[in-house]
Amino acid sequence: MNPINTDASVGEAYRALVEKRQNVIKKELESALPDGGDFIWELGCGHGHFLTAYAQAHPDRVCIGVDIVGERVDRARRKRDRAKLANLHFFHAEAALFLQTLPLSATIAATFILFPDPWPKVRHHKHRIIQPAFLTAVAKRSLATARLYFRTDFVPYFEQAKEAISAHPAWSEDDGPWPFEFETVFQSRAESYRSLSARRAVGI
Predict the structure, then answer these.
(1) Which of 16, 51, 148, 153 could form a disulfide with 65 if both were Cys (CB 3.0 to 4.6 A apart)?
(2) Which residues contact 61 (CB under 8 A, 6 or more apart)?
(3) What is the dihedral of CA 162, 46, 179, 156, to 10 degrees?
(4) What is the CATH number of the domain that holds 97?
(5) Rounded to an integer, what is the distance from CA 126 to the centroid of its chain?
(6) What pTM did the predictor assign?
(7) What is the rounded distance in angstroms from the CA atom of residue 51 to the CA atom of residue 132?
(8) What is the average per-residue pLDDT within 40-69?
């Protein structure tokens, strides 16, 4: 077997898979945001507890949650359907692919990242979502008045996220109040947690 051809076929299969997933996301976005506009985004929405409560409290806001685990998204959608929330949408998607597929007419008004995987081992820190490249990508698709809200019960991750956000030219740490409180499953299990909010930097 020719290893070069094998590598090429694997790469082609992966590209086809990504394209198929992107087409699904595109159709879902057309349904959720037919006329574009801004929306509230929760990254790592899990079973949808927080965003469902948020959407109920803010019926005038389009809310979109994404998660990489399909079973979680299925449960979140069932929760949405029981609540009959037309302004709430859940996507089975990875953050980068979602942002790449987002139409230019759509912009993020606020991003919530609540108790993400802390990836505690040093060799896994590269997998943490709060990284300079991610902050840049979100800023490019956000309103000038956008906010980013981050909460974790893992202090080292909080400190790393705080440092990354403070050093990033597109974001500025904000000492404003937390906009909406609803205890998630992870939050209920945490002995303590720390919260951080940031705003889009002026002129970026």
Answers:
(1) 51
(2) 39, 40, 54, 55, 87, 109
(3) -20
(4) 3.40.50.150
(5) 17
(6) 0.91
(7) 25
(8) 97
* Nearest to 130, CA basis, from 178, 97, 162, 173: 162
Is 152 a residue whose pLDDT tops 60?
yes
Report the binding-site residues.
Answer: 42, 67, 94, 117, 121, 153
Q: At what angle do helices 155-167 and 132-140 cross, to 10 degrees?
A: 60
Query: Angle between the 70-83 and 49-57 helix axes, to the nearest 10 degrees?
Result: 30
Q: Which residues contact 31 (CB under 8 A, 6 or more apart)?
A: 89
Residue 24, domain extent: 3-200
Residues 6+ apart with CB under 8 A from 168: 132, 135, 136, 139
In the chain, how many domains are there? 1
Q: Which residues are annotated as a binding site for S-adenosyl-L-methionine?
A: 42, 67, 94, 117
- Known binding-site residues for substrate equal 121, 153
Instruction: Give kind and range of the element (H or E) at residue 159.
Output: helix 155-167
What does the buried/exposed string (b/e) look like for 13-30 if buried means 16 or more CB atoms within 10 Å of the residue's CB? eeeeeeeeeeeebeebbe
What pLDDT, on the 0 to 100 scale, is given for residue 157? 97
